[in-house]
Amino acid sequence: MFRQSIQRVALRSQSTVTQTAPRALSNAHIGKLEARWESLSKQDQTTLIDELKARQVLPWSELTPAEKKAAYYISFGEWGPRQPLYLPGERAKVFWGTVGGCLAGIALFAGIRSLAPGPEPVSMNREWQEASDEYLKSKNANPFTGYSQVQ
Asked: Where are the coiled-coil regions (predicted)?
C-alpha cells in the first residue's frame, strides 16, 4: 500500500513537470546580454535569471544557442563579484604610484642619512680590525678561516 502511494506521487510529479515546461525565451529578450546586462534593473536581472533557471531544468539539447550563451554569461560572466579588479589604465596608475612611493622612500632615507653625524665608529677603522684579528689568532678562534696558529 505504501509503495503504491509513492508510485502515484512520483507519477503526479512527472506529469506536472512535463505540463509546465517553459517556452523558449526570445532572442530579442536575451540577445547581446553581455552589452546590456549592467544597464538592466535588478528586477529585470532577477526575472531573466529565474526564466533561464526554469529553461535549464529541461534537457540542454532543447535550449537555443542564445539561451545557452545567456546562461553561461549569467553564471560565469564578468559582472558582480567576477567584475575585473582594474579598469583600463588603472594598472599603469598603480604601477607608477608604487614606483613613486619607493623613490620617495629612498629619497627620504638618503636625506635623513645625510643629516646623521659623520664619524664612523671606532671599531670600523683599519687598526681596530687588525688588532681584533691578532686577538682571534692568539685564542685559536675559528680555525677553518685561518685565525688559528696550529697547522
From this structure: none
